[in-house]
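Regression report. Comparing outputs from two consecutive submissions.

Submission 1:
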Amino acid sequence: MRRREALAMLAAGALLPGRAAAHPTPPEGDPDGTPPTRTDTGYGPLARLHVGGATDAVVSDDGTTAFVAATTGYVVVDVSDPDDPAILAERRDLLADREGGPLTGIYDVKLSGDTLLVVGPANPGQSDLSGALVVDVAEPSRPEHRAFYETDYPIHNCDLEGDRAYLTVNRGDRRALSIVDVAGEPTEIGAWSLREHDERWGDLAPYPRTLHDVFVQDGVAYLAHWDAGTWLLDVTDPASPTVLTHIGRDPGTVIDQYESGADGYDGLPGNDHYAAVDESGDLLAIGREAWATEERPEGGPGGIDLYDVSTPESPTHRATIDPPPTPDATQQGVWTTAHNFEFRNEILYSSWYRGGVKRHDVSDPAAPLELTWWADRPHAEFWTARVAVPGSTFVAASRATGQSPAALYVFPDADGETTWGFDDGAATPTSAETPTATETPSRVSTPGLGPLAALAGVGAGALARLRRHEHP
């Protein structure tokens, strides 16, 4: 089935059981994911493509090409045929000829027009070379490395709007945003520091005020600053960013709660991990990556909070989307805490590690309605969910698990549910042709919570360092 036929069928809602159901779910204990021993009997992915080291992913504006951060490089994937995604280009050992190269620890890529931004390393110690690689992807099958902006700090996450790159800066005591012009030779044209904005934050250890991620839309940067909350900055003048609002606790409260043991780096409250707005800029989601601990079992997993920011100076909490259940919410258990997400056309597409991927109707932000939930707890650990063709397909990148390799999944942009590994290990399929989202209650709660989020994708050693609040 070719792209035009496939998308026409999907847009019409004609998801044939033979297509959506025929995609195999890898059996436990089979690292290659073959041969399949079970299939999704209702809603399920259209395709699954092995991409070694996959973490985050973005999709081109036309929905035909996905760009995947792949730890030791990046991979370009043709997703124009939802049933048969194919690798167009794979680039590893980036900048191996440079001193300190190659660039590795690549957990994030961002796309703007024909420019791809590839950053790393995500965490200290993953690479001797740090920085942002600017790639021309006008021909996706032949990416051309145009420039490299070398830094003296690791880059966990970034964003790209037009010719401006926005980089997370976390080194020693510095927790900041760097704004870099990448139109020609990359040059920093602006910066913003939490501590310089309010020196009281300097009394808090660096890790709890980590700038974990940045999202930029229409000249506003949304900064997920972990326990220091989420900050909205006007960056239309990059040389002089100004604060629009802050969602979260004041520095004195955070410091007091750390000292009393009421808060900690690993768990709620706090843990603002990722923040993004819908197309209008009026609805903000803050995802909180968090875990339970023996001392604080209520510390996780974290969900996604929705805020009305139509008046930025007066953000209003509307609802919280709860994470999928897990028998062990600690870092050593089964991760089902919130990770990355995207809004499109009043639908929130979200990833929850082994909790799977979800779609929520957020047309009424006070009552988000779950439309889709697909999970395969033993074999898929989703890092992100991104729209490809609205109303037709979305993609999701999964890290490797002990049973299956890392992969890029292509899903129908439709309603339904299949949750391998939940409900006592049984699948709970719902036909995509007969969605039941309007017939079942949404899995949300609406407490008056503050912002929630956290640092994702760090290894056990790094997490141990974070718990000790050591400086990178």
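Submission 2:
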Amino acid sequence: MQVRPLGDRVLVKLVEEQERTQSGIYIPDTAKDKPQTGLVVAVGDGEDIKVKEGQRVLFAKFAGTEIKLDNEEHLILSVDDILAIVE
């Protein structure tokens, strides 16, 4: 299934954080924070969109609407919820 966001919205695939610390300690799912970075999969047709498909972005913690596509977690975000581009 393909999803194309409308207006100033962006479809972002969530990027999982590391499951272990640098010292090798395992972090259980209950202790993990919600991911705040993701990979831009699709962008809407709005005029003020400054991100492109394939870029990694940092977004607000409780932003967007969660959807599941092909058994993977995605978010539909407003461009205003994107805080930075991660390079």
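Expected: both submissions complete independently.
Actual: both completed, but the second showed a warning that disappeared on reload.
Relevant detail on submission 2: The CA atoms of residues 54 and 79 lie 15 Å apart.
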